[in-house]
Amino acid sequence: MSLIGVDVGTTGVKAVVFDQSGKMLAREYEEYTLQFPFPGAAELDSKAVLEACRRVIAAAADRVKSTDPVKAIGIASQGEAFTPITADGEMIGNIMTSSDSRAASLVKPWSDAFGTDRIYQITGHTPYPMYSLYKILWLKNECPDIWKRTSKLLFTQDLLAFALTGETKTDYSLAARSMLFDVRKRTWSAEILNELGMSVDMLPELVESGTVVGKILPEEANKLGLNPNVTISVCGHDQPVGALGCSGAGSGRAAYAIGTVECICPTLPSAILSEKLMNANLATYPHVLPDTYTTVAFNITGGSVLRWFRDNITIEEAEQARREGVDPYNLIINSASDTPSEVILLPHFGPTGTPHFDSHGAGVLFGMKLSTTRAEVVRSVLEGITYEMKWNMSILSEAGFRLTELRAIGGGANSDKWMQIKADILGLPITTMQVTESTCLGAAILAGAGNGIWNASEASEAFAKPLKSYEPNPDNASCYNDLFDIYREIYYSLGKARAMLSKL
Q1: Which portions of the chain are predicted below pLDDT 70?
Q2: What is the count of structural domains for the chain?
């Protein structure tokens, strides 16, 4: 019997089938459209996301039904995003994604009144409009009719699990990204809920990552072509789930997710709530492995910038890819110049992630000349996204994280050229994996653990097989250190201009 790992992301959903030796048997993917109904808003249609999830699960299961039928499904998803539902299960609002900054004006007043240090000591997170807490405040203030009708707030993985089982449960790692969760006690924070005027009944029940929430509903099993005994597990926040799937939880290792959001996710043996981490906006919250914790250093608009270039600038490569039926991103990346670019991109096409937590991010292309080639601009995109992660890496190092290897996961890990650029900029070996869809593998591993098939940590070590390692090129690394200094100077120098632009 096989297992499906589902990864419900910001721009699309993946469903991957694995057998009980960790071998990938089938993969399905479907994109959905981000909506921007007003400045600061970045939404997904909850119903459209659910239907896309159903289609990829059904298609993946269909490909193995005669050879290795599905026994269990594990779900992981983006963090911070939730959908309000009524008492009878009706969805009455869209998903506000991580890059949604509509609640920016509410963050400081509420946090100052509650106490920013107090918030951090409870939740392990620093205030920022991406977190569910502030989106809930916005919903209460701006959509009182919807708020009055809301019976439950379900995070994205929980919404899919609810649709498939009728149960409302979430795991610790995803719950923590809401800023409604006490990371030490591993419970919903009564203090924060009281301040918000919320009942704990409005939130899903808390469980360990990988816990089976129930069997699939008969009508859903019939619709998706699944056995009615298939179990559904909630597995967690996509970043630590992906770290499990690439064995990035080992000593000196961290997962490096290269997708819509770029994120480095190391493992902590205990909860570290320090001033240094707080000042760098580096969260501390439960990992998907028992009795461990994690942090995430991330760029919210990482891969989304490359997608923007695909749709608006590198149209020729995108059209060629459609004609030839190949991955457009490989064509785009391969069209980049072969040497470091003197053009520098600030990839802040929306709110930034760590360490800045700047809700008024603005993308910048600096150093353009009449002699600048298209290939140099393409390379500047790949480099700019990675400079942002180099900044995060330097802060992780200052905070005491001694990393010796990054395990690359996600779609971007398929490119030799980009992996070498990243190794040169970050100054660390980067290892790609035989299964790049590590979040799906991690979800399948956790679902297997929830069903008593294996131990999650042991399965991670057994199934996560390295493919190739990229060592930094010393000459390029030295050049990139100089360019990175310019990158930081550009960001600091434009602070006043960003603030002025945000007021227009």
Answers
A1: none
A2: 1
